[in-house]
Amino acid sequence: MDKISMKLNADDLILSALKEDITSEDITTNSVMPDYCLGEVELLCKQDGVLAGLFVFRRVFELLDPATEMEFFFQDGDCVKKGEKVGVVRGDIRVLLSGERTALNYLQRMSGIATYTRSIADLLKGSKTKLLDTRKTTPNMRLFEKYAVRAGGGCNHRYNLSDGILLKDNHIGAAGGVKEAVRMAKEYAPFVRKIEVEVENLAMLKEALEAGADIIMLDNMSIEEMKEAVRLTAGRAETECSGNVTRENVEQLVNIGVDYISCGALTHSAPILDLSLKNLHAI
């Protein structure tokens, strides 16, 4: 994400998070630090992992006070070890105290997603299969969580409902069947849009292929069914495996031959990476 994109999309979300944490004042900080005092605090890693969200961490403090300075010794996507110093933050001690929790919430959450994503992406190395995220994100955190997936070595599926056509079971039910749903999507959508269809069995797969779907999502199918689905597809469409994919079972899916594996767990089940701000002192 570049600076323009961050300004257009991230600042409002970060400000909302800050307002959630500070409704009128930081009464604790103001009671012990009533006046300006220049200070410095260290950003420390408390467990091994992959970093993501340093620009968001920085932006929290900059929105509170543009004069805040930061020095990072790593960048997003880097592996860090327990005990390593990730960076140093310098500025008004009141700002360092008031922004600490919001900044860490973003960085810990995003780094946790990047760490979990990397652990799965590494299992797919050497195969043609790409790892995708889903829309199973935390409300108002999708921008940051999908960025974290990329930092961890994964790829992004569609960003939102305006970003691509994915005909799932209920869309197919509403349309009256796979062929009818694909036909209606082709009539409505611009020709530059790909059409993806979720199928639950081989009969639906055959319908989707005959209707001219561009991507077939194999949803909650057995390993044997997915292998047969890839064989039947024979390159006529791209294939995506989906449904309860985790780090524990992804190795079973690598040799199926699908083009993509989508994993909601990347964003809805990744634990945070433990980081902290320590050793605050005046300078």
Descriptive overview:
42% of the residues lie in helices and 20% in strands. The two termini are 33 Å apart. α6 packs across α7 (178-188). It is built from 10 helices and 12 strands. With 283 residues, the chain is of the alpha/beta class. The chain is elongated and about 70 Å long. The strands form 3 sheets. It has a 6-stranded parallel sheet with strand order 6-11-10-9-8-7. The model has no long low-confidence stretch (mean pLDDT 95). α9 (223-233) links the parallel β9 and β10 (238-242). The longest helix is centred in the middle third of the chain and has 29 residues, at 93-121.
SSE blueprint:
Elements lengths: L2 H19 L5 H6 L5 E8 L3 E2 L3 H11 L4 E4 L6 E2 L4 E8 H29 L8 E3 L9 H10 L13 E3 L1 H7 L2 H11 L6 E5 L2 H10 L3 E5 L3 H11 L4 E5 L17 E3 L2 H4 L6 E8 L1
Parallel strand pairs: 6-11, 7-8, 8-9, 9-10, 10-11
Antiparallel strand pairs: 1-5, 1-12, 2-4, 3-5
Helix pairs in contact: 1-3, 3-4, 4-5, 6-7, 7-8, 8-9
